[in-house]
Design brief:
mainly alpha; 76% helix; INSC_LBD_sf; Insc_C; INSC protein; ARM-like
Length: 513
Amino acid sequence: MHLIQVDSVQRWMEDLKLMTDCECMCILQSKPISLEKDEQNELILASQYSTCDSLQLLLKRAWIISTELTRIAQKLEKNRWQRVHSMTVRVNCHVHSMVNEYNTFTRNSSEEMHQLEKLLIDKCSEFTAFTERCLQTEDEEILKSMKSCVNETLTTIAQYFGQLIELVLTQEAQKLLRQIELSGSLYVTESAVSGLFSLAQEGAHLCRIIAKEGGVVALFKICRQDCFRCLYPQTLRTLASICCVEEGMHQLEKVDGILCLADILTDTSHSEATHAEAAAVIAQITSPHLTFTQHLSSFLENMEEIVTALVKLCQEASSGEVFLLASAALANITFFDTMACEILLQLNAMKILLAACSDKHIVDTPYSRDQVVTILANMSVLDQCASEIIQGNGVQLLVEMLFEKSSSGNPAEAAACERVQQKSAVTLARLSRDPEVADAAVKLSCIPRLIKLCRSPTERNNSDSVLVACLAALRRLAAMSPDGLEDSDFQQLVKPRLVDSFLLCTNMEESFV
């Protein structure tokens, strides 16, 4: 018991240190500093150089305030008034610091901004004084009645704070877009695009703000000017980030962005880096995980040109990263429209992709193999696909993919390995309707591997989706070549209903309450 007791004076001293440090910062930042002319010029240059860093600092400060407000609400629920008051003081200090920091690197704040800052600061001061009064009250009934007022004030502060941050981020996006619009300077435009990219990395909400303020329009304007060719890769990378949200996609459609991307991909005078980043934008806007791609009507009009350019990029890729971006775009397009698979067959894409897989410098990660096997799985629904697979030694590759294992233990890589195993099993199941493919798979000892994946959860990383795919492939191969299975495997993995075999192979832990 002695060990868990905390000296209250010591605890108070620790809390006081945090509060006074924060208050000292507020006071120091509020003091005016007189500067000579030369020193002022140096300060302006320094502030321009560190605007991006300052914005990052602001976002970190905003995250701290948001976290503290959530914690105050939690402590309030438990009636821990001492903690509520000390945290309120801390929030008050952080808000003052945030406002001062922002005004330090932003010289021309709007009137609306100043009004919101004043409302937030006044409400925080009022909140601090109110919680102090609660601290001095011992009557439980009075505290209960004051609690609802505290909750209302906390809600108001959260609203003001949210509005202020939204306005700050909107104004920062507007400044950067204004620089792109008004400046013909390569340096200024590059700096503004870099700033937009940094903002977009902060999450979907910021991507929506940038899109609403015309970010997609401004970036495609750069991609249509030859004088900014050296900025195309950076600009396209920023576009790929912004187009993860619906607002970005709508803007892309409005400015004929698909046509612009098709022109870039088919223009052989562009660098490989530019082509790769254009492929990344295509991969983003055709992602099967997005629910708002149906309106991309112009994509179908340019699909053949885009697919042709992407296949060429896969064939000529000088690095694994370039191949990954091009193949990811192709994989997504095969989900987007079935006509893409027919175009890929006409372009001998199967042969190109299988050849790339034999080059360990190009297809060098499970992520790249995931894209290749996705394309093969989606193409395998076509009858002509079987002969292409056999000619390109594709059956052997698919069987090898059943052995895909993560070498690093990284969760993302392990998930990619699961997808490779699952999709290779699906592709084998689909292609094995052709007796020649089924015979080749059996000769390559595909059946023992499928059985092991079914029976050993560790081999499939405990993945149920891999298990289902392997059971389906095993049943198809067993139908074509029944002699390859032992009786026990047939009785447990092939003969019963699929769901029964699935339940048999999964380690189900039942708990009875």
